[in-house]
Amino acid sequence: MTGGASIGFAPLFPWAVLVALAVPLVLVLAVSFWRRAGGAAWRFLVGALLLLALVNPSLVSEQRDQLPDIALLVVDESASNRIGDRAKQREEAAQRLKDRLKDEKDLELREIRAGAADASLTGGEEGTRLFQALERALAETPRKQLSGIVMLTDGQVHDAPAKNAERPAPPLPAPLHALLTGRPGEADRRLRIVQAPSFGLVGKPQTVTLRVEDEAAPAGAHARMTIRQDGGERRAESVPIGADHQMEMKIDHGGPTVFELEVEPGTRELSLVNNRAVVSINGVRDRLRVLLVSGEPHAGERTWRALLKSDPSVDLVHFTILRPPEKQDGTPIRELSLIAFPIRELFEIKLDEFDLIIFDRYRRRGILPNVYLQNIANYVEKGGALLEAVGPNYGTPMGLYRSPLGAVLPAEPTGQVFEQGFRPRITDVGKRHPVTAELPGAETDTPTWGRWFRQIEAEAVRGRAIMSGVNDQPLMVLDRVGAGRVAQVMSDHMWLWARGYEGGGPQAELLRRVAHWLMKEPELDENVLKAAVQGGKLLVTRRVLERDYKSATVTTPSGATKNLELIEDKAGRATGVIAVDEPGIYRVTDGERTAIAAAGSLNPLEYADLRATGDLLAPAAEASKGSWRWLAAGASIAIPEIRRVLPGRGTAGRDWIGLTRNGEYRVTGVDQISLLPVALVLLLALGGMALAWWREGK
Q1: Does domain 528-599 have CATH number 3.30.410.40?
Q2: Which residues contact 306 (CB under 8 A, 6 or more apart)?
Q3: pLDDT (tens digit, 9 = 90+) per residue, 204-216?
């Protein structure tokens, strides 16, 4: 505890009243002195004494508690400050600083650790935010006690106030000293995504702009970069170093498509983590172009058309064959149809423009020559989609199975047609297939759907029968042919469901699923391995038609591997869950398929540049009259001398840093002693007046 004394005043009257009294008194005394009146000096002393008494001076004595100065030690624990020996440098420097300052009795050192979560699953986009942590600490620190701020960091601080910012941050209330880990002149190769679209049309190439930077590479050098799409095979490409490079990436399906990019290591590397980048593009389909060819008018034709036209994403081209060539009734050709059937244009020139071709109860009558049917078969094998709803003529020589198109159709007709009522059912395989699994109304082995009354008997020589009808004969068959897919419905009575006969059925949902399966949408793939990060956990889903789910191997972003058992949770699907604790790409494989999932930010700002630097902190240090310097001194580190300096003095030198000695205190008590007690003032005033009268009488 210390003390302090000072003179205080507590006027008995307002200062304005005291001034009003003093002015006439001074004038009277001035006249007395001018006329050389006797006793004028004594009158002046009496008047001054009375005025001083009205001012009421007192001696104020304070009891003070000295408050310690506060220094803030901000320790950067971000991912970039853990590469190499930076973490060792940081911790050694922090301990040595604390050892040097522990004997300072009037200094309190507060340690703030920040940055550990800045590249986590939730904050990777923002980078290292040390100044946010500093602001929170300053809010709890009395500004008059703040002595200085010391930062132990690699300098990659992404919220540091910029020197030429439009709205510069207010200056710090104390000097900022940045002690940098790492070493000056570091070099590192890094891959940076300059621009990438978030969405892209399926089937259309998307342009991604990237840049490879490497200070150690010679001018004009190139680097080998590998690209992998959705965990598939790698392909290599040469990219220039130090210049923007554009590359095209094709979207094959709807939903997210993930591209993994990795550039080969350079001659000098701090870490390989920023040699990789990820681009995720969400594929969206343009209007689905569907060609519907009805072999003849019938009750189900309107159902197909209504189902397809009700979807706003479908661009439907529909033709119905009203008059076969063999019918010769003398009708002029110009009156046979409103629009001529452009056979060559559809099935030769523009065939590849269609996403899906549907044949509804079609039979060969010479309208489509075999060459065009062969074109359709080739279209399927190259990746096209074909759906056929067969009619009673499928088992006859006029059926499409007896044409070149039969090479891609999975169901071989027997020639028999069942004309009896039956309820469509889901097969054992169908209960596990995503097209028919958990269809509305299929909760039981015998669905409550309405009956159909015609089925064409056929044998599924290829593919899988996912629905059955009369005598467990295949009713819906799916097959993969080359790069394309085919679906067959062995009946033309689906329209009964649309009419609500006996309660109807899920014809709209069934057709939607079939179409999406034909379009190769990943969510309806029957053999797929998927991975997704949800709520801090990696959810792995494996869907197969067989029951051998096996196990999966998970590779973390850091390269560690973990084995994950998959457990069946419902028909056709097995899942496994594993906790994620680091951002980046998780790779999952079951030995046959590979799936990837991104945790946190795809390309965290934290890893964008791993070189230690003082450029980002220099403006803040200079504005606060602080400094920045490197810790590295050969194989060891060098801690600058710490000096306590008075306010207004320099706070940094060549080999030292300064912490301000503020001398702040807290008043705990006050003693007040009047300098002019009333009795003393009266005694002195009477004595002075007596002397004045005596002097006048002489």
Answers
A1: no
A2: 498
A3: 889 999 999 999 9
